[in-house]
Amino acid sequence: MLHKNLKPFPQTFLWGASTSAYQVEGANLIDGKGPSCQDVKQVPEGTSDLTVCADHYHRYKEDIALMAEMGFKAYRFSISWSRILPEGTGDVNPKGIEFYNNLINECLSHNIQPIITMFHFDMPAKLDERGSWSNRESVDWFVNFARILFENYGDRVKYWLTINEQNVLTLSGPVIGTLHIPEGCTNELKEIYQQNHHMLVAQAKAMALCHELLPDAKIGPAPNISLVYPASCKPEDVQAAQNFNALRNWLYLDMSVYGVYNNLVWAYLEEHDACPEFMPGDEEALKSGHPDFIGFNYYNTATVAASDGTEISDVHADQQNAQGIAGLYRAFRNPNLPKTEFGWEIDPMGFRATIREMYSRYRLPMIVTENGLGAYDKLTEDGKVHDSYRIKYLRDHIEQVQLAITDGCEMLGYCPWSALDLISTHEGMVKRYGFIYVDRDEFDLKTLDRYRKDSFYWYKKVIASNGSDL
Ligand code: BGP
């Protein structure tokens, strides 16, 4: 739809950016923090471990000051579960509570709203040993952790996100080092969707608890949503796109918003004898969640064709590159879209399409919790990073958010990935996303000094003009 007049971004729009604890903090085994599954996993060859990351744990004041200089209204970060509860349950680590108190207070002192992700790919190692999400007790573990967060930080934190990219955990967990398949498992699909079910119940209970304890706070999920296009107008391809849309996207949002399983996904699971088992009370718990908004990560769309029956579902596909599932869909390279240096398609118009589709399905306000471009940035000798490619990516995407607002979709905020450079989920330090350059290499920690990239100055201008000067 062509609009003659664009609607402005709301005055209260939450401009900001995102990080996650295990990728940015470092200090992964100090001040009482227990290891998480990320700390004990096999680090991909050639990439750094997580002992230092961007050293945000020690440099958060400097980082928040830089965010304030850009004019941030919000900072989305995650809380490391094993920093708060070194064993995942049991004793609370006072130093962990203190660190996030300081971080939250530092944000607030600069008028930056903290948006807290409660779980971002970092199950405490002790709970990992006990089966992680495959263990039914994981529901109680998570709700207990949520309660501790609400009780300690709920007086100041107004925006909460439950589980980051639950759909990615379920569809390609091994790539990010998080999905457990217990030895001797005979039906892997059932096992995966049972774990998914535990996360869904845990999330719904945490949302209900948030509403009970913090009536003024807002909480929502944070899946990775990519609208799926059909490779052609062949009816078979359109159906394949519906299949993958259901499996990748709508399963998660239908459940968080309406508390019901998407029927296409359920039918697929039935076919494979893989439906999750419900415990007494699950059905009611799932219906009791009710998010106040939808947080979602968007990097690009997906395109699929009809399955020819030979696809092998590949759990090693990454977040944005699915392979296909026999009988459901086959991955298709969209010839209309360019790719990043790391092979992810770039589709700004698909962002608007994704937002429109979500709004028509769920009618809830939305916060973009991730969006961004991973690239090999170069620090020049005079301390600059000329990341015009990132500015272009972000500008093109913000334009589409404004178009979606003009279409009538309710948008609360935009927090791209990432506030500062940090360790990628599986590509190490070389894949950078930040507005702030962090001076370190994969293994050489160098100075860890911060540098303002060109995108830093550009984003500052965007925020100062409330999105009117792109
Ligand atoms: C999302 C994750 C983030 C992040 C981002 C970029 O899936 O929520 O944690 O890292 O993708 O991914 P990558 O680091 O693999 O490029």
From TrEMBL:
Provide the alphabetized UniProt keywords: Glycosidase, Hydrolase
Instruction: Output the Gene Ontology terms for molecular function.
Output: hydrolase activity
Q: Which residues form the active site?
A: E370
Q: Which SUPFAM superfamilies match?
A: (Trans)glycosidases (SSF51445)
Gene3D superfamilies in alphabetical order: Glycosidases (3.20.20.80)
User: Among its keywords, does the record have Hydrolase?
Assistant: yes
Entry keyword annotation includes Ribonucleoprotein: no
Q: Where are the transmembrane segments?
A: none
**Pfam short name (any one):** Glyco_hydro_1
Similarity annotation: Belongs to the glycosyl hydrolase 1 family.
What is the name attached to this protein's record?
Glycoside hydrolase family 1 protein
The organism named in the record is: Amedibacillus hominis
